Structure formats: C-alpha cells, structure tokens
Batch of 2 targets.
Target 1
Amino acid sequence: MTGWKSHFLKKLLLFTVLLASLALGGCSSAEAQKYIESAADQAASAAWDYAKEAVKGQLNDLGNSMGNGGSTGSSQNTSDVTPSTGTLKVHFIDVGQGDSILIQDGSHSMLIDAGENNQGKTVTAYLNRQGISSLDYVIGTHPHSDHIGGLDDVLRSFEVKNVILPPVEHTTATFEDVLDAVADKGLTITKPVPGDTYELGQSHFTILGPAGNYGDELNDWSVGIRLTDGNHSFVMCGDAEQEAEQDMVNSGLTLSADVLKAGHHGSRTSSSPDFLKAVSPSWAVISCGKGNSYGHPHKETLEKYSKAGIQVLRTDELGTIIASSSPEALSWSHADASGKEKPIDLAQ
Ligand SMILES: [Zn+2]
C-alpha cells in the first residue's frame, strides 16, 4: 500500500470511528459498536479500493440512520421546490482550456473543477475576490488535468465541507495530488449517485452522472449535475461524451435546463442530439481556451446549437462569464482578468 493510500485509509477509519462514536447518542451503543468493529475489520483485511468503498458505505448508512444534516442524498422532486427569493450566481471562470465553475447562493458556495495545475492560483484569487472563505461542496468532475489540476490549491486554501469525486479506478499523478489534499484536510469523498440531491442555500442540485461504468473512458465518468433555484436551472456535466449523455437521458431524471455548460468544451463528442433535446437549453456556455489545439468548440457543435436556437457564450471570447438568476430574470455579465464585471450585450 503506497503512502497516500495508507494515510488516507487511516483518516477514513478515524472519521468512521468518530462518526460511530457520535452515533452513540442517537443509536444504540451495540449498533454503533458494530459499525466500528465491522469498519475496522473490513478495512484491515481488504484491499484499498474495497476498504474505501466499505468504509464509505458504512458512513452513508450511519448518516442515513442519523438523518445526517443533508449531506447524504435524497430523492427530492424538483417540482416540489419553492422558488428562491434570492440570487443564484454561476461563474464560469476563465481558466483558458479547462473548466472551473463557482456557484453562489447567499452565503453558500460550491466549486466544480479548477482548471489546469497552473490555474489553481487564478481560481483561488477569483474566489478570494468574491469574499469566499468556505465551500459547501467541491466537485472534481473527472481526473483530467484541465479539470482537477488546480483543485489541490483550492482544497488547501479554503474550508471545504464536502468533496464529490467520481469512483474511477484509473488515476493520474494530478488526481493523486487532489486525493492527498483531501486526506491532509481530513476530508472524506462522497460518491456521486444519480438522483441524489443536495441543498445549497435556497438552491439545490441533483446528481445526473456518472450513470454507468465507463472503464478507461475518463470523460464519461464526469460528475454531472442539474442545479436549480426554482427560477432557473443549469446542467453541467464536465466532459461527458455521447455514451454518458445517453445514460443520463435514459435515467429518467429531469434534464431540462435554461443553461447547458457545453460538454467537453464544445467538442463534437458531446452535445449529442438526444441529450440536447432533453436539456433543451436557451443558452450554452462553452469553457475553452483561445486558439486551443483541440479546435474546441467544434464547428459541428456550434451548428447544432445554432439550429436549435441556443445562444452561445464562450470564455475564450468573453473571459469569465457570470449568470445571475433572480425570480425576475436570468442576467449575464462577464469579467476580465482584473475581475471588473460588465453586462453582456446579448444582442451582439
Ligand atoms: Zn476537459
């Protein structure tokens, strides 16, 4: 077992014991003792991956049995939600070729991805400028460096309450940096389960993916969410490609949204017809770098959007793009590197 794995496992076990001890108040002591014993037994005897799953499963069971503060999923129906009276802001931070999305609802905030390794400072500086000291959720969509490269900087710079990462077997050095940061902060990883819903202020988000097993296809493992404040909604699925998109369509979960974060930087491998039809957005935000070597966004994707009457906003053209949802409207602004916000003239 390598250093980070055993370190991480120890942290997980400690956390399990702590939670189980806390449970003594709410559950019978015999039950709590059983959790401690079986977690320790399984973790000690099993391989890392198995142990991680086992401990995590027990944490979830324990959380559910205690009605644990909303951090475990529920199958809340989006139509039951009372529309927010405040403002939900979604910032598509310009990190060049990559993704980084900050979501704020009142004093609550979350971050999806943090661009390449060299963008960690850009993202932390942006979050600092927004006055953020704590993140309710951090999602690393998948192990590619243009998404999770800067995430270790974020995890080390802010108080983070929940980390959501896909359950991929394959890892990269960059991904291990993130896991190290998670372990060093004593955090545990929440596994994304399609249909699970989490609260963020007056908004909430539902996990859409990964909704299948994608082997080495890391893009398809992307954690996808649908975020809504009851007034407007956003679908953001990292670099999920056609197969993963189809699985999300087949899942029967609500996909319709006002805004789609274009999958895989506007690549032709994503925004497949069925998925686009199910989301049926008015706007698509493409996060990509100026003159990137992949040719993102691809012409075919832009044509599909244009044909469907979807208005496109691109970080390579506008810098950071900010959507503000209020009960009255969804308004758009953008910011250059200095952070100065200006409204986007959508008539252009
Ligand atoms: Zn990417």
Note: The pocket of zinc ion is lined by residues 144, 146-147, 239, 264-265 (CB under 6 Å).
Target 2
Amino acid sequence: MIDLYFYPSPNGLKVTIMLEECGLPYRIQFVDITRGAQFAPEFLKISPNNKIPALVDSTQPQAPVSVFESGAILLYLAERTGQYLPAGGQARYRALQWLFWQVGGLGPMAGQAHHFRAFASEQVPYGIRRYTDECNRLYGVLNRALGESEWLAGEYSIADMACYPWIIPYERQGQRLEDFPHVARWFAAMGARGAVQKGLERGHEKAADAVGHTFLYGQTAASVSAHNNNEPSGDKQ
Ligand SMILES: N[C@@H](CCC(=O)N[C@@H](CS)C(=O)NCC(=O)O)C(=O)O
C-alpha cells in the first residue's frame, strides 16, 4: 500500500491529484500540522523537515520507499508509473524545469503572500507589497508559457499538477485571473479533469486558527527541537 502523509494544503493536494491521475491505490495518513502532529518523532523519521507531504510506498519488492518533498514525490510517482513525465530528452527537462520552478518559486512566494496578506500577526506593508508583486510577476511568467502551449510542458504533466493547487487561492495572493487569460484557460481545463476534482476532494484547506499559529509560525531550530524532545502534538511551542 502507498501511505500519503497529508494535510489538505496546496503541497498535499498536488500529490493526491497525481495519485488520482495514476489510479494508484493509496491510504491517507492525516497529519494535523495546525496541532503539531508534524513534530511527532515517528513522522520526523519520514519527513525530517517537519512538513507534509511525505509518502511511504510499501509495495516495492526490495524494501519500502520513503520520500518527502512534494516535487520528489511527484517525480517518484511519475517514474514508478511511467506517466505524466516524458521519458527523456528535451521534453523531460521541459517538465522538470517547470516542476522546479513551482517548488522553488511559485510555492514559496505564494506562501509568503498568503502569510503577509492573511495570517501575519501584524500588518507589514513592505512584505505584502513584495510578495504580492512577486506573485504577480510569476503569474506573468506562467501566462506567457501557457500562451505558447496547452500545458506547461507541452503534454499534461506533473508540472501542471504541481502548479494548480497554488493558483486555486489566487485571490489570497492578490491576483486576478482576468489579468492572465492563458492562466485562466489552463485553470479551467485543470478544474474540469475528473482526477483533479477527486484529488481536491481529499480535503479543503483549513485556515490556521489561534492554536495553529503557535505551531506553524515562528518556528526556530530551538523551538522545533524542544518540541521533538518534550511535548506530544497539541502542546504550545
Ligand atoms: N518544500 C516543501 C514544502 C512543504 C510545506 O510547506 N508543507 C507545509 C504545508 S503546505 C507544512 O507541512 N507545514 C508545517 C510546518 O511548517 O510546520 C514541499 O514542497 O513539500
């Protein structure tokens, strides 16, 4: 069985979308990151960065395969199934470059925009402007790419699956799809896919409440290590 350590946030949902696209059986192991479950020692053995998603595939003949980081998980599933990633040549690197663009750019920048616009405990106009503008620039990059081909890498691939859950909350990032018509066309095409709809049904993002804030924000090496050593999930950092 494949176990997906999951919370219904954009980085989790890209993996449920891929699993549904591939038609692989899997089991959800819910990790409530708003209550500190990401610091449980048994989870940290699988995901030492204390973040979801992580995946353990126990169906492999030699030994279970354990992977953390959403981009690595998408790559693993694509290679395991031979689907949604071209086998070689320029086409493969076209998909991989957009996958890396998402995990290194769109995801972190949109995440910061969410933080400063919706969750920060104080209003920081410079932070709001910086990340809203950077998201806007990235939407422009996406729009140009999608103006040249139907899907990011020509064929539908893990690159599209990685980006889509990060575009769903575009309003929270201060963006308007009307300004990016090729993104809007692609967004509608993604949302019309049955497997994408099924992947998203795995949960709806919960906004962090007051308790969640104490677990998700303000982490330092010291606070994480205190967590690992002492308290079970649910305690305040
Ligand atoms: N680079 C990581 C980012 C994963 C990530 O940020 N996960 C968030 C939820 S979307 C999380 O688990 N946060 C828990 C925490 O920060 O303690 C990936 O792509 O998998």
Note: Residues 232-237 have pLDDT under 50 and may be disordered.
